[in-house]
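Lay summary. Proteins are chains of building blocks that fold into shapes, and those shapes determine what they do. In this project we predict the shape from the chain. Here is one chain we studied, written as its sequence of building blocks.
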Amino acid sequence: MTLPAEVMNFMRTVFMKNNKGTRDMISKTSIIGLLAGVALSATFALDAQAASKYTEMDVSGGGSVSGKVTFSGAMPSDAIEQILITKDQAVCGEGEREVVWVDLKGDALRGTFVFIDKIKEGKKWAEPPGGKYLVEQKGCRFIPWAQVVKPGPLTIRNSDKGVLHNINTREHLGVEKGRSGPMRTLFNFGQPDPGDIVQDLKPRRANYIPINCEAHNFMFGFIMAPPHPYAVVVGDDGSYTIGDIPPGDYTLKAWHPRFGLQESKITVAGGGAASANFAFTN
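And here is the predicted shape, written in a compact code that computers can read:
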């Protein structure tokens, strides 16, 4: 599945920037029916929420999956973009900022997320480095460019003295259908002073989260916030490993923000090592 080239244009565009007569017609039966429908819908919603809940447990005799994410073919014309730095040059730099939407090292497609889709139970989340999930704004860049975080408290750090940053996070609702939108705002706030602000990251409909700074039109990044810890960003060479997987059959997916989703069916045996590679093309 490939996202259209317009996805980056969409991101840039979005980132820059009680009638009495009617009551009389409603019978008591209609009201009762309406209320019953609402209650039924609420029940279905609760059932769906319960069905998607992840249960942490001790995994004994789990297996693993590993592989590599690659790219082949001609690079898209918007793979690398040069954006003029027009403010805060003393910190952000002068001239143009190179924004790399497609980051290749050889054939390795870096900046790709690999994850197990809809796994119901498994290992606990590991403690994040330094005890907190962190997005740092330093040198007018988001560090890291791509990361997996647990839904919940997220520390936003401004390390640029004298520079106003304005982080905007959105759920990208169209990823599963290969669309460039819509996007739903999670939080959006200015941070004029150095230091940390802790904000709850609570995606409700999608785990794919682009981030940008609305004060600097060359600052972008990506977060994935799944309900489970079976998700990683590929390494410098495009490789990945996901371990402590309970034995079973799963759907493994790879998401690259420019090229969209691919998936692979895998079977993980107790103590075994499955493999799955993903090859993206333009």
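What the prediction tells us: The CA atoms of residues 247 and 271 lie 8 Å apart.
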